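Give me the fold.
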Amino acid sequence: MKNQFKLGLKDGLPICLGYFSVSIAFGMMAVVLKRPAMEVVLMSLTNLTSAGQFAGIRLIAGRGSLLELFVSTLIINARYFLMSLSVSQKLDVKTSLPKKMMIAFGITDEIFAVSMGQKGQLTFPYMMGVILIATAGWTAGTFVGAKASSILPAVVSSAFGIALYGMFIAIIVPEAKKHKNVLIAILLAITASCIFYYVPFFSFL
């Protein structure tokens, strides 16, 4: 079990580093929006959802209602329901419900990709290793960004946002090379995304 936890930490380290750079931008933006540094650090520690947090902090800063906040974050994070369900199918059958809930809390796009790329069953210690180190990177980056917001120029902070895309590409490209169905899914997703963005008929989405 200890070896599984260490393996989780090792596999989660690239995610941790990627999250650290991205969350610096989140911490900076939150402070620019006049939110206290420790508030956004607590948000990162208890949420671990980049898109949801970026949307949420804007709603909070704009004095949006709790209903708006709830609906927005629910829609943005709805994909995690399916990801958690998929991961649960790979978990050791002896994994208890409380442990499954802890794992579900820590599921993100990158953690999901790394988990599903593992051969065989997933263990609770392994998942905790990946989730804990990723959470540490996301939270630490938020803290650094919040504290450094008055030092670095805006152009530098915005550049950190590119790191998330680079990290995700680094995760999916090796799998696409090994599995044709993964490559097909990626190409379909790119095509659909371009259609939704460029075709005027879908502008309402």
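The mean pLDDT is 85.
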